[in-house]
Amino acid sequence: MSDTRQEWNHVPEVPIRVSPLWSWPPQPVAALRWYLDSWFFLTINMAIVAISFASLYLASPTLAQAAQPAPGWIALIFLRNAIIVTLVAGLLHLWFHSYARQGTALKYDPRPYPRRGRVFTFGRQLADNAFWTLASGVTIWSAFECLMWWAMANGYAATITFQTNPIWFIAIFFLIPVWESFYFYWMHRFLHTKPMYRFHALHHRNTDIGPWSGLSMHPVEHLFYFGSVLIHFAIASHPVHIIFHLMFYGLLAITTHTGFEGVLFRNRKRLHLGNFHHQIHHRYFECNYGNLDVPWDRFFGSWHDGTPEAKARMRERLAARRR
Questions:
Q1: What are the C-alpha distances in Å from 105 to residues 13, 53, 135, 186?
Q2: What is the pLDDT of residues 88-112, one digit of tens each?
Q3: What's the per-residue H, E or C state across 73-105?
Q4: What is the mean predicted confidence (pLDDT) over 244-270?
């Protein structure tokens, strides 16, 4: 434990825990509490649901309008997404980094963010991250959303409403993170293969991370990342599910990459943000490809639970692979 404490500015309780749903013997009460804490009430998931409904009613086309591609509604979607990303990433950057309202409290990595260096576009980490987030990330995110609006409007993707199928309508919001857990793990491992890492390396310029780092990716990676939404060609959904799905991928990348465990207010953590699990991935690269809801990393040998023993096992695994 002492080695871990010296290496990081902030270390939560380790070993890192995964969802109790995967514990044996079963822990139904703990599992229920895990998922309630993930959704209710002051949580990122619920905030994204609220933003998705506001986006649907205030800044989206109707299905009738989306039946024909037109600059007006396509631009509306792009501008809406760009404004939301700028507000979320910008405000988090101001809170944690520009004004440092928490100082280093709950900050995982002791190194300062942002940095300068030739590895970054424009020589500056913040400019690099913002450029790739907005120019590539928001553009490709919005393109996928426009595609799904058009497909639903023309019957290529089946649609439902709350009135016709209320249970399935609600269930989809809870199932999207389950799909994300599966899709992200395997997509992420694929991006760490030799042919693909030249694209993923742009994201891994960020060994210490900030809010603008989460969506700072190569356009090829953005295509894979937001391509998750194509599952809705196979699953009947509503346009608000498309908005939520893409915002879940987009905004969660921002909030989990602040570099901090959460937001402190009056010396209490009021909102959980980033997990130590993924911060370790940015430090060591070859571990923790997935998330904690479904422990794919434990199942497939890429798990790092934050302890010195896990770090030693990871080094042994990588050394054996090089032999």
A1: 15, 33, 32, 33
A2: 999 999 999 999 999 999 999 999 8
A3: HHHHHHHHHHHHHHHHHHHHHHHHHHCCCCCCC
A4: 95
C-alpha–C-alpha distance, residues 126 and 204, integer Å: 14
- Asked if residue 322 has pLDDT above 80, the reply is no
Nearest CA-CA partner of 212 in 38, 56, 50, 94: 94
Angle at 134 between CA 191 and CA 285, to 5 degrees: 25
Return d(Cα 115, Cα 126) in angstroms, integer.
8
The two tokens of residue 120 are: 């970054």
DSSP string, 35-75: HHHHHSSSSHHHHHHHHHHHHHHHS---HHHHTS--HHHHH
Take residue 229 and report the two structure tokens written for it: 């939404």
Q: Tokens 């959303």 appear where?
A: 145
Task: Please report, for residues 43, 255, 285, 294, 311, the alpha-carbon distance to residue 193 in angstroms, rounded to integers and kept in the order given.
Answer: 34, 26, 12, 22, 21
> Could you tell me where the beta strands, DSSP code E, fall in the chain?
262-265, 268-272
Q: Measured on CA atoms in the order 139, 145, 151, 154, is the torsion positive or negative?
A: negative
Among 57-61, 111-115, 132-136, 254-258, the minimum mean pLDDT is found in 111-115
Residue with tokens 């032999």: 323
d(CA 119, CA 63): 44
201 confidence band (pLDDT: 50, 70, 90): very high
What pTM was estimated for this model as a whole? 0.95
Q: What dihedral angle (degrees, nearest 10) is formed by the CA atoms of 196, 205, 288, 87?
A: -110
**Residue in 220, 110, 301, 24 with CA at minimum distance from that of residue 290:** 301
Tokens of 13: 């309780």
